[in-house]
Design brief:
The complex is a heterodimer of chains A (about 150) and B (about 120). Chain A has helices at about 30-40, 45-65, 95, 105-110, 120-125; strands spanning about 10-20, 65-75, 80-85, 130-135, 140-145. Chain A has about 150 residues and is of the alpha+beta class. Chain A has one domain (about 10-145): Histidine kinase-like ATPase, C-terminal domain (Heat Shock Protein 90). The model of chain A has no long low-confidence stretch (mean pLDDT about 95). With about 120 residues, chain B is α/β, with parallel strands linked by helices. Chain B has one domain: Udp-n-acetylmuramoylalanyl-d-glutamate--2,6- Diaminopimelate Ligase, Chain: A, domain 1, CATH 3.40.1390. Chain B has five helices and six strands, in the order αββαβαβαβαβ. Chain B is globular and about 35 Å long. The two termini of chain B are about 20 Å apart. Classes of the chains: A alpha+beta (about 150), B alpha/beta (about 120).
Amino acid sequence: MILARDNNDVAMMKDFEVTTDDFSSAGIASSKIKKILRQIGIDSGVIRRIAIATYEAEINVAIHSYGGKIEVYIKSDRVEIFVEDTGPGIADLDLAMQKGYSTASKEIRELGFGAGMGLPNMEKCSDDFHIESEVEKYTAIKMTFNL
Amino acid sequence: MKIRQIAELLDCEVIIGEEFLDREVKYAFGSDLMSDVLAYTEEDTVLLTGLCNNQVIRTAEMLDLKTIVFVRGKCPSEDVIELAKEDDILILRTEHTMYSASGILYSHGLEGTSI
């Protein structure tokens, strides 16, 4: 666990492993999270934003890291998503946040990703976006969605 | 535009979801790059793509897109079709290229999303 969690007012917490061995299975965690949020009855527009941002993050973990975890904290007034991986990290976060900047391989681009839109899209979809990273160690993201 | 009309205009084969042909869409978005689909697509949009893997279905699922047209005669594999079934996604397939398919739909009044 890299980023601090605030356990006050947590109605539900779920966690999901993200592995990197099979790209075709990337998205399973985001799909499960979306279904849970729908069952709880959260507004569909908010669910859509959470689903897009979580999926982008999950794809990044699957592409770039050695493996990671997604944790979902559902609170009375917000949903917090933590995405933390171990891996190469990001050397220049400002550069990584720019639209169009990507270090993804040609193979990943052929699979439909690596356009350098993921991180900016996560920031756009969430109400609050926090990212930190240490090269050769980890990348950690917290996204908050107000209900 | 009704999906049924899209299927007729593009001479589509219905791969799965025949029961959903009366669905309506307001816009179309064409891309082989799911990153861009995720960044720019609104709801009520039909997705045209030549990419044919699981992540196309996952992308559609996250965006609440309910119809996918595979262009250039691309044919999804069984596991891709199974994944689409779980989310009631309608899949069409056309021999037209992305350019031609987009042109045909646009000329019949189906607009793109503005980004």
